[in-house]
Write a structure and sequence with these properties.
By secondary structure, this protein is an alpha/beta fold. It has helices spanning 4-18, 21-28, 48-57, 59-69, 133-144, 163-177, 188-201, 204-212, 230-245, 266-274, 285-298, 305-314, 319-336, 342-348, 361-372, 376-380, 386-402, 408-414, 420-433, 438-452, and strands spanning 32-37, 40-45, 75-80, 153-156, 183-187, 216-220, 249-254, 276-279.
Length: 455
């Protein structure tokens, strides 16, 4: 009778031989044998996150291979089991060589900073549910085999439901597992700004090279193409054709299905419909609760169950507002030096879940300027006096928090065309100070109450 180690060696060989390099590197290579007794095979994953990934995605495949190697009666179970520090790896790690439909990549091993990816937005930090499960699975497949699974992949749905998160997750996964692949995340607004700048500086060829040399291009919010000129449509259409023709992966998001984007060129719309088009919908109650718990756990916040359910019942269609409610609660609790309770939430989250679509950037700018006794032009302008800078950052923060359709580049255009990184810095500065500055927290709450009363 074979020993457990002999069985495990055969099973690893079978798993590796029948899985893609991406699947092996992402989930299977880290597994190890914990116990083998009779028809019971226990396999260990290095941590809880990896265990959940393998459980959800690869357990049927592992079981199938185990039954082929050991016998049809074998039962496979998973547990968390760190590998002993003194144990050498079962085999040397092989470099992941991504498949290429054209030929070997000639790009550098690392991708330059303008990939614009948020490292916090990964598949592990995304909470799947019935409303987004197909989009989540499609995004994972695209990340594992870029250019081969679904190309293009189009994800659509209302703002605040996780489309941008999935784009960043794809990019982060590819950069981690395929270091030779070039990845670029870009909003349609940024693409347009780059296009205009290239025309002004007569550097169109450099623009072509910058976008068309990427192996994975992630374009956010293509609904904003509808109001752009024909020349811009031509540029993005030919960029799409150049990448797709070379087997490069393209993923796009929109607030509507391509069929409903009447402002797009018919030929571009038809290209999008050739791939996979999938929708993210409003999350159900259980998913909203899971999102809140995941966010609280990730930030080390003790969020009671009654508070979690109370928030989830009120915010039904916007994940960004769900997560923002935890940030605000933590700020209130820190300032008061008391734990988060249902009473605290009911007292301070009075506008939770209310419709905010009537707000416009101009309204926020006007209210902020009046609140601080300034002019709108001063708030939008470039003067660096401390009161002006503070009011400007507050206005940026409120536009980002309360207007879900406004990306950082779009907000930058409101403030005299600043670089979007300046907006990110201003928003993050206000967000970081909320937990330690009671005066600022009071200002933000007063401004939000005024804005909620606007008609």
């Amino acid at each position: 009778m074979q020993s457990g180690e002999e069985v495990w060696a055969q099973l690893r060989e079978s798993l590796r031989g029948n899985a893609s390099e991406a699947v092996w590197a992402a989930g299977l290579s880290t597994l190890r044998l914990v116990d083998f007794h009779g028809d019971e095979l226990v396999i260990g994953a290095p941590n809880q996150i990896q265990l959940q990934r393998v459980q959800q995605r690869y357990l049927p495949f592992i079981t199938e291979q185990a039954q082929r190697v050991i016998g049809p009666e074998v039962q496979v179970s998973l547990t968390v089991a760190d590998a002993p520090a003194s144990s050498p790896p079962a085999e040397p790690a092989a470099p992941v060589t991504p498949p290429s439909p054209v030929g070997p990549s000639t790009y550098a091993a690392s991708v330059d900073a303008p990939a614009r990816l948020d490292p916090r937005m990964t598949f592990d930090s995304f909470v799947p549910g019935p409303s987004n499960r197909l989009a989540f699975a499609a995004a994972q497949s695209v990340a594992e085999t870029p250019g081969r699974a679904y190309n293009p992949l189009m994800i659509y749905g209302n703002s605040g439901l996780g489309k941008t998160h999935l784009l960043h997750a794809i990019g982060n996964y590819v950069r981690e597992n395929y270091p030779g692949r070039r990845v670029l995340y870009v909003s349609t607004e940024t693409f347009l700004n780059d296009f205009i700048r290239a025309i002004q500086t007569k550097t169109q060829l450099a623009l072509h090279e910058r976008y068309r040399e990427n192996d994975v291009l992630l374009i956010d919010d293509i609904q904003f193409m509808e109001q752009r000129g024909e020349t811009f449509h031509e540029e993005i259409f030919h960029t799409y054709n150049a990448l797709h023709g070379e087997g490069k992966q393209i993923v796009l998001t929109s607030d509507r299905s391509p069929r409903d984007l009447a402002g797009l060129q018919d030929r571009f719309r038809s290209r999008l419909l050739q791939g996979l088009v999938t929708e993210v919908d409003q999350p159900d109650l259980e998913t909203r609760i899971a999102i809140l718990r995941s966010k609280a756990e990730g930030e080390g916040i003790a969020l009671p169950d009654d508070v979690t359910e109370w928030i989830a019942q009120r915010v039904r269609d916007n994940i960004r507002e769900l997560e923002g409610s935890i940030t605000m609660l933590r700020a209130f609790a820190n300032l008061r030096q008391e734990p988060i309770t249902l009473e605290l939430a009911r007292t301070h989250l009075t506008n939770l879940g209310q419709e905010q679509a009537v707000l416009k950037p101009e309204t926020i700018l006007t209210v902020v300027a009046e609140f601080y006794g300034l002019s709108v032009d001063d708030v939008r302008g470039s003067k660096r006096l401390r009161p002006l800078v503070h009011a400007r950052h507050v206005a940026m923060f409120l536009i980002r928090e309360m207007l879900n359709n406004y990306s950082y580049p779009m907000i930058a255009r409101i403030f005299d065309g600043r670089n979007h990184t300046t907006v990110i810095s201003g928003v993050e500065k206000i967000r970081d100070q909320l937990g330690s500055n009671p005066d600022l927290l009071n200002q933000i709450n007063q401004l939000k109450r005024r804005l909620q009363g606007e008609t």
